[in-house]
Design goal:
Elements: E1 14-17, H1 24-33, E2 37-43, H2 47-52, H3 59-71, E3 76-83, H4 90-103, E4 107-112, H5 120-126, H6 140-156, E5 160-163, E6 166-168, H7 175-181, E7 194-196, E8 201-204, H8 208-213, E9 218-221, H9 225-233, H10 244-249, H11 251-259, E10 263-266, E11 269-272, H12 274-278, H13 280-289
Parallel strand pairs: 1-2, 2-3, 3-4
Antiparallel strand pairs: 4-6, 5-6, 7-8, 8-9, 10-11
Helix pairs in contact: 4-6, 9-13
């Protein structure tokens, strides 16, 4: 299937994989097919925390996976970590980051676990229950502390934060994700895939069967591209470059957030401050409702 995709060698072709599912045969096939970047859903390097997520890998599994990828010629890989897992503590979080130092990956993603009533864990926490490790889930304050510690630790390792949840060594920033955050055109293939041409968005039908039956079927998504520019672009540490009309349209929230220390302007760029990153949802919501 990949043979039909033009543009080889691709600047970036990313594949997501669960630790423990990678074999030498698979990695060699990926490399031969043009895959040059793999994202590993590690989440944690501590066995107790991993078990709480339903995963079965170990830290040694991840080490082995990375070695397999390197031997196949795939040296560009990402490690996903989650702050706020059940049974996680500041001490155990530091141990996961110690593994990052040992493995020296070119890219790391750090997500703060969001608990809501749409999930089993969220409902259990709201009810004060103990299932799914609800009673051992760190508080929002503790989770925020873990994230901020990761920012400092990764920066010291030369892995710089370039987007709220993404960190990379120079030159290893995720190219395809940067297209979304910089509001550049992209095309999506497959059921439920989204595309953007710089003006309009559209979404393929959700059902795989319907997608195969009606390949051209799609639904145009109406969106305020000006609002999206801020909602998406402010995720980047480089920020956004508002037009004169956008400065005028969002003058009130921009001034308020600058005064509150959540936003800062430099020349014609507008970006989140370190404090603003931690309260980014509050900032984004304002731009979506102004």
């Amino acid at each position: 299937m990949l043979a039909a995709v033009p543009g080889r060698p691709w600047k970036e072709a990313t594949l997501e994989a669960a630790p423990g599912t990678i074999t030498a045969e698979k990695a060699d096939t990926w490399a031969e097919s043009g895959i040059n970047r793999v994202s590993l859903g590690v989440q944690s390097f501590l066995q107790e925390e991993i078990a709480a997520t339903g995963r079965k890998h170990t830290a040694e599994t991840v080490v082995n996976d990375i070695e397999i990828l390197r031997k196949a010629g795939i040296a560009n890989y990402n490690i996903d970590l989650i702050a706020g897992l059940a049974r996680q503590t500041i001490k155990s979080w530091r141990k996961s980051l110690d593994w990052i130092e040992k493995l020296a990956p070119p890219h790391v993603s750090v997500y703060m676990l969001e608990v809501d009533d749409d999930s089993r864990l969220g409902r259990e926490k709201l009810l004060g229950g103990v299932r799914y490790g609800a009673e051992t889930t760190p508080s929002e304050t503790e989770t925020a502390e873990m994230y901020e510690f990761a920012v400092e630790r990764l920066e010291a390792l030369g892995i710089r934060r370039y987007e709220i949840s993404n960190f990379a060594r120079p030159g290893f920033e995720s190219i395809h994700n940067l297209k979304y955050w910089r509001f550049e055109p992209y095309i999506g293939f497959g059921s439920d895939a989204h595309s953007f041409d710089g003006v309009s968005r559209w979404q393929n039908v959700e059902s795989p069967a319907e997608y195969v039956k009606h390949l051209a079927a799609r639904e145009t998504v109406t969106a305020d591209l000006c609002e999206e520019k801020f909602f998406v672009g402010l995720r980047l540490m480089e920020g956004v470059r508002p037009t004169l009309d956008e400065w005028r349209r969002f003058d009130r929230p921009i001034r308020r957030f600058v005064d509150e220390g959540l936003l800062e302007s430099s020349g014609d760029m507008l970006r989140l401050t370190s404090r603003g990153v931690m309260l980014s949802n509050e900032v984004f919501q304002e731009f979506l409702t102004s």
